[in-house]
Design brief:
Layout lengths: L1 H12 L6 E8 L8 E10 L8 E6 L9 E3 L13 E7 L6 E9 L9 E3 L2 E5 L2 E6 L2 E3 L28
Antiparallel strand pairs: 1-2, 2-6, 3-5, 3-8, 4-6, 7-10, 8-9
C-alpha cells in the first residue's frame, strides 16, 4: 500500500516540458550611454509536431532611443516609446524549425550609471502565454580607460626600448 502511494505521488509531480525554446543574446553588456546595442531572440520548436501560431511581444524599455530597428518582421510603429509593444508574428514553426528576431537601438546619452535595462519578452502560442524571458543589460557611464598589452605581439630584447601606441 505504501509503495503504490509513493508511486502515485511521483507521477503527480512530473510536469511536461515545453518543446518551444527561446534563447536571447544581448550585447554589449555592460553598455555605455549613447552606445548601440543588439538583442537577438531565437525561438525554436524542438517538438515532433508543428507549433501553434506564435507571436513574440517585447515591452520596449525606458532609457532607449525610440528609433530602434526591429528585424525579422517585428514592428512597433514609426517610433517605439518606452512601454510600447514591439510585435513579431512568427507564425507556425515546423518540427526542428527556428526563427530569429532582433532589436538594434541606442541607449540614451543621459542614462545614469548602474541603470539596469530589462527587455520583457513574451512568446504566445495560439493566443496563450507559452514562454517569458527578461534579458537585461547594465549601463556603465563612468568606465575607466582600460588598456590591454599583448607581450608576444612585438617582443623587445632586455635593455631595449619598448614603444606603446594608443
Amino acid at each position: 500500500m505504501v509503495r503504490s502511494a509513493i508511486l502515485a505521488l511521483l507521477l503527480c509531480m512530473v510536469q511536461p516540458l515545453h518543446a518551444l525554446q527561446m534563447i536571447t543574446e544581448l550585447a554589449p553588456d555592460p553598455v555605455a550611454p549613447g552606445e548601440l546595442f543588439d538583442l537577438q531572440i531565437t525561438v525554436s520548436n524542438d517538438e515532433a509536431a508543428s507549433s501553434g501560431n506564435l507571436t513574440l511581444n517585447l515591452t520596449y524599455p525606458d532609457n532607449l532611443s525610440s528609433t530602434a530597428y526591429f528585424a525579422g518582421g517585428g514592428s512597433c510603429g514609426v517610433n517605439c516609446p518606452a512601454g510600447g509593444t514591439a510585435v513579431w508574428n512568427l507564425g507556425v514553426l515546423a518540427p526542428g524549425q527556428a526563427v530569429t528576431a532582433s532589436v538594434n537601438g541606442r541607449v540614451l546619452a543621459g542614462t545614469p550609471d548602474a541603470t539596469v535595462i530589462s527587455f520583457p519578452l513574451e512568446l504566445t502560442e495560439s493566443g496563450a502565454a507559452a514562454l517569458n524571458m527578461n534579458p537585461a543589460m547594465t549601463v556603465r557611464a563612468d568606465s575607466p580607460l582600460e588598456l590591454a598589452v599583448d607581450p608576444l605581439a612585438d617582443p623587445v630584447v632586455p635593455g631595449g626600448n619598448l614603444t606603446y601606441e594608443i
